[in-house]
Amino acid sequence: MNDALFWLYLTNAVLLINHEIDSAYWKEWDLFHLPGGIGGFLLLHFPLLFMVLYGMAAVAGQRPSAPWFSLLLSAGGIFAFSIHTYFLKKGRQEFDHPVSKGILWATLVVSLAQMAVTALLLTTGKTA
To answer: For 77, which of 17, 53, 56, 111 could close a Cys bridge (C-beta 3.0–4.6 Å)?
Structure first.
């Protein structure tokens, strides 16, 4: 089951990183009214990407912190899908492209599966 969690985490991380690349194209900082333009957006991503990759190392090493990083990443994926779906329904054009939407839908599906596997591992005590 820990192997499944690793592959779900890795897949979700790749999806979310691709979403963030897409976010730069759509100028997400304008959508969320973040200060600093592209510079601020890029600087914000240093700690975010560090946490995602550190979490993957924790999952791969089956460290005690692994489930919490996994839950955090899967919650982030669910949030990304939800907030962008909200903006699309409000008529915003950002992320209104088939590939952008495909990444968001795939992120939702993988995030839900990852959260379920993480919860199962936590309730059965089979982590780390």
So the answer is: 111
Q: What is the 3-state secondary structure (H, E, C) of the chain?
A: CHHHHHHHHHHHHHHHHHHHHHHHHCCHHHHCCCCCHHHHHHHHHHHHHHHHHHHHHHHHCCCCCHHHHHHHHHHHHHHHHHHHHHHHHCCCCCCCCHHHHHHHHHHHHHHHHHHHHHHHHHHHCCCC
What is the per-residue pLDDT across 48-96, written as a single tens digit (0 to 9) for each? 999 999 999 999 999 999 999 999 999 999 999 999 999 999 999 999 9
Calculate what percentage of the chain has a pLDDT beyond 70. Answer: 98
Give the mean model confidence (pLDDT) for residues 25-29: 96
d(CA 63, CA 23): 31
Tokens of 57: 């190392």
Residues in Cβ contact with 100 at an 8 Å cutoff, skipping those fewer than 6 apart:
19, 22, 26
Segments making up each domain of the chain, as ranges = 2-124
d(CA 99, CA 63): 34
